[in-house]
Design brief:
Mean pLDDT of chain A: 91
CATH class of chain A: Alpha Beta
Mean pLDDT of chain B: 81
Largest sheet of chain B: 11 strands, mixed
Radius of gyration of chain A: 18 Å
Shape of chain A: globular
Strand content of chain B: 25-35%
Largest interface: A-B, 31 and 23 residues
Strand content of chain A: 25-35%
Structural class of chain B: alpha/beta
Strand order of the largest sheet of chain A: 6-9-10-3-11-12
Number of strands of chain A: 12
Shape of chain B: globular
Helix content of chain B: 25-40%
Radius of gyration of chain B: 22 Å
Distance between the termini of chain B: 34 Å
Largest sheet of chain A: 6 strands, mixed
CATH topology of chain A: Rossmann fold
Order of helices and strands of chain A: EEEHEEHEEHHEHEHEEEHH
Structural class of chain A: alpha/beta
Low-confidence stretches of chain B: 1-25, 127-139, 212-220
Helix content of chain A: 25-40%
CATH superfamily of chain A: P-loop containing nucleotide triphosphate hydrolases
Distance between the termini of chain A: 14 Å
Number of domains of chain A: 1
Number of helices of chain A: 8
Oligomer: heterodimer
Number of helices of chain B: 13
């Protein structure tokens, strides 16, 4: 059974249609990469999946774990196991990283009828994940993303993903603004999360990240449609030829 | 805050005034004149010096009223108040007794529930009859004894006038003279009751003093007067207010608070105010016109104000410090929230007189709905205040696009050695912040409350622990429905 089933998805922002019929099927255990030129709708797709309000779905359907994702609020989607690693992580002044993440984890646990974790149980868990992403413990008590460098913010996103253990993680340009060392650390964190029950969708502009997070499938999004799909070799081809050659070809190579 | 204590206070009162009240007899006719002032003093059995002071205050107020000198500079709007249409003395009103919680406004019950107020206490607050059978060991009595042992005087203002007239005479009006302003004059003429605290030399008050514990003065009415004196080397922390919503019938509240800190003494004064703010259309609600001022009289003394203001239709309030003693320290930490049609004009004045005096001002204003929130602050460095320092941080947060935030900082420096810092910011609560938290599984309401609490953190950490927790809950309740 598929984890994510996107059918003919159309979405607009401020009346401008950005997504014009996206179809995509993702099964548990798979890693998909969505590539495309600037303005092709990659981030919009990520935001729509995370249920951001000002993105209006005009047509199509999205099923997530057998449920209608488009009927969910953002927090409901999160509690169902959908995680978005933000392209631009947001700063929340005055709220510590540890406090925020425990509140998030407990909100999700609560929605599943699980017991909430107290600080004593939670801190070791968080520290372990932070070690994996090579983040200093001083970040525990720093306000969420405030004063973090670009790379620290991105690593912090993956720490959150590791703590929340989503069924589906969507990484929105997680590689942007990362130097090669940080990129490797982030990729290590993401790869550690790969499992047969979890799917990952990597949205990226460049092939570079896919050297470290090797996807099972690569899709090319152009003008709000997936115009080409293939294996990891497609990413290399794109890197060599650029995006323009895909635009001439018809869609249909989807799985 | 112990429930038992509150209940005990309340039950004692019930006995004192009886269940069927004689309110009518204890109420003076509407209007204000010298006879009314005399009648108040007489009813309270006050000594001659008090009556004289009240009369002087009244005459000053009347002259101001005639000149129509009611302050108009605040950034708030309200229809003119007819001072002759109010009654200036009534014994605490016995609320109509209800038989069960079913008779209470469900909106109020919802709020109690969210604040986590126990059922028993809910009944008391809502005025439902309670069969109070409690542990016979009175916590309140233990409390009083402990204070007595330490030599701390903590009583109602009325009791202080009778039992410690020399202290009242010495300090009353020494920080806020009756000529200070229109509302202070009005209060001085007609104040009904309030709190009195005296902490003797070298004594660290063994507990936080709270109005909750004050015996015989639960309902001090609309004109409250508080006087707190910390003698040399003394320390006291005073908590004012109650986080439960109070549906008060009195529309005009004009309180005066005076604090005096002698050499090496510290006074910490914390307020959480949640009076009736009026309804969603801005009808009703309390006008809260308060004069609060502390005098750091002695060297190395310190006065710290912390306030969380979420209630009242109109707030006009500037807890201030006169830094007279050398090396004295004044602090003001404030969160003011206005939602719906609430208006707040609040801030502080720091007046540096002594050498090396320091002041810190941290103000957080939150506006939602059609709320209007004004920070008004004055920092004055007088000639002799060599080495004075001030740090002011003034942040405003806007929720929605129909509210307003305004900042009026006044800075006056007459000594070139002064160091001043002023930081100010205005921001809108970010839709992207809310979405970020939601995407992590946190509901929209929680997300807003979390962002607001983060915004207010610098103030909340100045509050005593329990107050801080309640204040956080209060903010989220006050903001309910203001987002999305």
């Amino acid at each position: 059974m598929s984890l994510l089933e996107i059918k003919n998805l159309h979405a607009s922002v401020n009346g401008n249609e950005i997504l014009r019929g996206v179809d995509l099927t993702v099964k548990p255990g798979e890693v998909h990469s969505i590539m495309g030129p600037n303005g092709s709708g990659k981030s919009t797709l990520a935001q729509v999946l995370a249920r951001r309000e000002n993105y209006e779905v005009t047509q199509g359907s999205v099923e997530f774990a057998g449920k209608d994702l488009l009927a969910m609020k953002p927090e409901e989607a999160a509690c169902e196991g959908l995680f978005l690693a933000f392209q631009y992580p947001v700063e929340i002044p005055g709220i510590s990283n540890a406090y925020f993440l425990r509140a998030a984890l407990n909100a999700i646990r609560k929605s599943r009828g699980q017991e909430e974790l107290d600080a004593m149980d939670f801190l070791p868990l968080l520290k372990e994940k932070m070690r994996m992403l090579e983040m200093d413990e001083k970040f525990l008590n720093r306000p969420v993303n405030e004063g973090f460098s670009g790379g620290e913010k991105k690593r912090n996103e993956i720490v959150q993903m590791a703590v929340l253990e989503p069924m589906l993680a969507v990484l929105d340009e997680t590689d942007s603004g990362l130097d090669i060392d940080a990129l490797k650390i982030v990729a290590k964190g993401v790869n550690a999360m790969r499992s047969k029950d979890r799917a990952i969708v990597v949205v990226t502009h460049y092939q570079r990240l896919l050297n470290y997070i090797v996807p099972d499938y690569v899709h090319v999004l152009v003008n709000g449609r997936i115009v080409k799909s293939g294996g990891p070799e497609l990413a290399l081809e794109l890197e060599a030829k650029g995006y323009s050659w895909t635009e001439a070809e018809p869609a249909g190579a989807r799985r | 805050m112990s429930t038992i204590n509150q209940i005990e206070d309340l039950t004692k009162q019930e006995y004192k005034w009886g269940f069927v009240t004689t309110v009518e007899e204890d109420r003076l006719p509407n209007g204000l004149n010298e006879d009314i002032v005399r009648a108040i003093a007489q009813k309270k059995g006050e000594p001659e010096f008090m009556l004289e002071w009240r009369l002087k205050s009244y005459r000053y107020w009347a002259s101001q009223e005639q000149k129509q000198a009611e302050p108009k500079w605040a950034n708030v709007k309200y229809p003119p108040i007819d001072y002759q249409a109010l009654s200036y003395y009534s014994a605490p009103k016995q609320k109509k007794e209800l038989k069960s919680l079913d008779e209470v406004d469900p909106e109020i019950l919802k709020t109690y529930e969210k604040l986590g107020i126990p059922l028993h206490e809910q009944k008391l607050l809502a005025g439902v009859a309670v069969d109070a059978v409690f542990d016979s060991v009175s916590v309140a009595t233990t409390f009083k004894e402990k204070l007595k042992e330490a030599g701390v005087i903590f009583c109602s203002f009325s009791d202080a006038v009778k039992e410690h007239p020399e202290l009242v005479k010495k300090y009353l009006g020494s920080v806020v003279p009756y000529t200070d302003n229109f509302f202070a004059a009005l209060n001085s003429a007609v104040f009904s009751d309030g709190s009195f605290v005296y902490v003797p030399k070298g004594v660290r008050c063994p507990m936080e003093l709270s109005t909750y514990f004050r015996i015989n003065a639960q309902n001090t009415g609309q004109f409250e007067r508080t006087l707190i004196i910390a003698d040399e080397g003394a320390y006291v922390s005073y908590l004012e207010g109650c986080t439960a919503p109070v549906r008060d019938e009195n529309q005009l509240h004009a309180a005066v608070v005076e604090l005096i800190a002698h050499d090496n003494a510290t006074i910490k004064y914390s307020t959480v105010q949640n009076w009736y703010p009026g309804d969603k259309e801005g009808k009703g609600g309390i006008y809260n016109f308060v004069t609060k001022r502390g005098k750091c009289l002695g060297k190395n003394s310190k006065i710290s104000w912390t306030q969380v203001e979420t209630g009242s239709a109109i707030t006009w309030k500037y807890p201030s410090c006169i830094l007279q003693g050398d090396n004295s320290v004044g602090e003001f930490y404030s969160v003011a929230l206005t939602n719906n049609y609430q208006q707040a004009d609040t801030g502080t004045k720091m007046i540096h007189i002594g050498k090396n005096t320091k002041s810190t001002v941290v103000s957080k204003g939150i506006s939602a709905g059609h709320g209007q929130n004004t920070y008004r602050g004055g920092v004055k460095i007088l000639k002799g205040a060599t080495g004075a320092r001030n740090y002011t941080q003034c942040d405003s947060l806007l929720i929605g696009d129909k509210c307003g935030a305004h900042t009026f900082p006044y800075i006056e420096v007459r000594n070139a050695s002064a160091r001043m810092e002023h930081e100010a910011s205005t921001s809108k609560i970010g839709e992207d912040q809310i979405f970020y938290l939601q995407q992590r599984g946190i509901s929209k309401e929680e997300a807003v409350s979390m962002i607001i609490n983060g915004f207010c953190k610098a103030v909340f950490r100045e509050l005593p622990m329990e107050f801080a927790v309640e204040a956080q809950k209060l903010l989220s309740i006050s903001l309910e429905g203001s987002v999305g």
